[in-house]
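pasting for the record
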Amino acid sequence: MGPRKFGSSIRGTRYNQGGPRKKTYAADSIRISEGTSLDERVEATRLAHSIDESMGFARYESGRKKTGWLCNMHSTVVEDENVPGGKAAVDYYFLEDDGGTFKATLVYDPYFLIACKMGHEAEVEEFLRRKLESRLKNIVRLSKEDLQMPNHLLGYRRTFLQLLFSNVSDLLEARREIMPIAEKNKKNVNALDAYAEVAR
């Protein structure tokens, strides 16, 4: 019997049977999300780092100055034994003129701002330090224009509390705790209170 026109009628039985199938990962599954556990985050970060190395983007930490074209970037976590969950960072991917590639990592402190009633900054700061002591890294007072004010084009500046965290998961947990309190307080503030603060 000669060869069949469209190949063998046997459909890869040799390949479909026996041996465990290798685990595959979708590109977005190795990124860290709010619902990911701490161990999964660490494992996902290590996996992403090993994939980057195998693709030629090893992390450049020290040595001579390098110059390259930025071709990609994404958020990541840098492991630190003193910080559960690691430190928030951004990986920047570069192409060099000679065809080489490298990755540079920049650690940063994620933050959000809180506006409080004028003159009550100290007590709000103390409350936040007690409530978020295990997650909060620091609180800084900033003077910024408040674009939520009824007439924000006048350039009125007010004091905001900047809450800094070691990583995004700490920030999200803190925001989840604070949001109900902030929403409740927001309902009690009306436009007249806002104008009164500006007049002061």
